[in-house]
Amino acid sequence: MTDVRAVRKAVIPAAGLGTRFLPATKATPKEMLPVVDKPAIQYVVEEAVAAGLTDVLMVTGRGKRPLEDHFDRAYELEEALREKGDTEKLAEVQHSSELADVHYVRQGAPKGLGHAVLVAAPHVGSEPFAVLLGDDLIDERDPLLPLMIDVQRRRGGSVIALIEVDPTQVHLYGCAAVEPTDEDGVVRITDLVEKPDAEDAPSNLAIIGRYVLAPEVFEVLQKTEPGRGGEIQLTDALRVLATREDAGGPVHGVLFRGRRYDTGDKADYLRAIVRLAADREDLGPEFVAWLREFVKERP
Predict the structure, then answer these.
(1) How far apart are CA 44 and CA 197, in angstroms?
(2) Which of 147, 182, 157 is nearest to 250 (CA)?
(3) Pair 173, 207: CB distance under 8 Å
(4) Pick from 204, 233, 218: which is nearest to 158 by CA?
(5) pLDDT at 63
(6) pLDDT on residue 141
(7) Is the separation of the CB atoms in 187 and 178 below 8 Å?
(8) Phi/psi at 219 (nearest 5 deg)?
(9) What is the predicted pLDDT for the residue at 217?
(10) Which pLDDT belongs to residue 147?
């Protein structure tokens, strides 16, 4: 049965410690690390807003106050820029505070992604909602979330984003078993496995950090025991929805073949900065020219 409830809210889990980026993240949330000239979290909020979701809930933890400050007004800074006549910088500073209606809730104990999503239940209520993970940046030229929202509207249940990965890399992701639908690029999920060994993986289709979830996921998460890593895994709850339609399914997958930047790994984070900077009209030509010379000089 098609779920006609509109997707209006976005949930962004942001309670992680960012240990892979220590010592940079000792006092700075990993979500605030810059990607060119904006913190990574701003790209994610902008993506949600571009998809029509202006009610954003960030699930945070200790040490995440800079997230709140970034999306709040900075009156002293604004006034200083106004006095200098720097209208361009002023507009950029104001942009982040005017993007969306941003709310915050603390996760408390770090019990996993599934727990972070469950913490959002009182804010979300009984309507479908989007979940965007901050480590995955989706290029604005290849919009993914609007397509996922459309699939959820037409087919009901929940929708996850999938990419094809090298079979040797499936152990890094949640992995999906699928069957085709009558729609190109959309599959029906029949099973999900969190970070399987290559020989146990049902496919090479990996889940990335974009979800449109039916509110029934909350009831399933409440009953989900800690899984891999001792954490409450969202993948485990989605598996219940996918294999038991009476629990709130179905679950569909959207195959994404666009540009995606992984900022959760140091090397991929650097690649993301290079790629996005190279595509910028104000930075690209000079930066790419320098990059060519730099690579040419490398041994």
Answers:
(1) 30
(2) 157
(3) yes
(4) 218
(5) 86
(6) 93
(7) yes
(8) -65, -40
(9) 95
(10) 96
**Cα dihedral 93, 265, 164, 213 sign:** negative
Q: Which two tokens stand for residue 142?
A: 């290849």
With a cut of 70, which residues of the chain have pLDDT below it?
Answer: 1-4, 245, 247
Measured between alpha carbons, how far is 31 from 232 in angstroms, rounded to an integer? 22
pLDDT at 79: 94
pLDDT for residue 247: 65
**142-166, pLDDT tens digit by residue?**
999 999 999 999 999 999 999 999 9
Residue with structure tokens 């025991």?
225
The answer to whether residues 95 and 87 touch, using CB atoms and an 8 Å cutoff, is no
pLDDT of residue 1: 44
Tell me what pLDDT residue 225 has.
Answer: 83
Q: Say how far apart CA 241 and CA 140 lie, in whole Å.
A: 30
Q: What is the pLDDT of residue 4?
A: 57
Radius of gyration of the chain (CA): 20
| Residue given tokens 């990059």 in the structure block | 291
- Of 215, 4, 53, nearest to 122 by C-alpha is 215
- Please state whether beta strands 174-180 and 186-194 pair in parallel, antiparallel, or not at all (unpaired): antiparallel
Q: What is the DSSP string of the chain?
A: ----PPP-EEEEE-----GGGTTTTSSS-GGGSEETTEEHHHHHHHHHHHTT--EEEEEE-TT-HHHHHHTS--HHHHHHHHHHT-HHHHHHHHHHHHS-EEEEEE--S---HHHHHHHTHHHH-SS-EEEE-TTEEE-TTS--HHHHHHHHHHH-SEEEEEEE--GGGGGGSEEEEEEE-SSTTEEEEEEEEES--GGG-S-SEEEEEEEEE-THHHHHHHHPPP-GGGS--HHHHHHHHHH-GGGT--EEEEE--S-EEE-SSHHHHHHHHHHHHHT-TTTHHHHHHHHHHHHHH--
Query: Backbone phi, then psi, for 29, in 5-degree steps?
Result: -55, 140
